[in-house]
Amino acid sequence: MYAIVRAGGRQEKVAVGDLISLDRVQAKPGETVVLPTVLIVDGDKVNSDAKGVTVTAEVIDHNRGPKIEILRYKNKTGYRRRQGHRSDLTDVQIISIGSEKIAAGDKATAKAKPVVAKKAAPVAKAAPVAEAAEKPAAKKAAAPAKKAAPAKAVSSDSDAKATKAPASAAKKAAPAKKAPAAKKAAPAKKAATKKTEK
Asked: For the whole model, what pTM was predicted?
């Protein structure tokens, strides 16, 4: 025995014990839903006037269908539109068609979702992160120590030429920083000399 039922704007061929997916039904898992019948076939008998026969289904689970990608494209115009869609579905099991009912052992149950256990790996990863944090700090501490060493050597010399040499070396090392300051200072001196000449 099987039946043709209306389900979400479509017609489905169902038998007792079948699992089918319908458009989303507002019922919780475990509740029953009555589907409207169109046709009942029982062996050689075909009943198209199935008003007295009901098809009952039990809701198993709610889920979503596969993703449908919609792409609109027009050649040579740069027109592209991409859209995605996933239908909301409900899985149901047919438990009775008229007087025919499903056996107790054939009932489906909702699928248990696997529980993901938290791993202890993040604790192990925290140690390398701490070491990485210490390394830049060590580099920063080492860099000022290198700069401080020439300053001590310059201060220990009492010779005037020795004190001017590191200053010229600093200008050669960073000409980009020193050059703009010199350009700004030069126009100010010219303006001062022009005022004095007048």
From this structure: 0.51
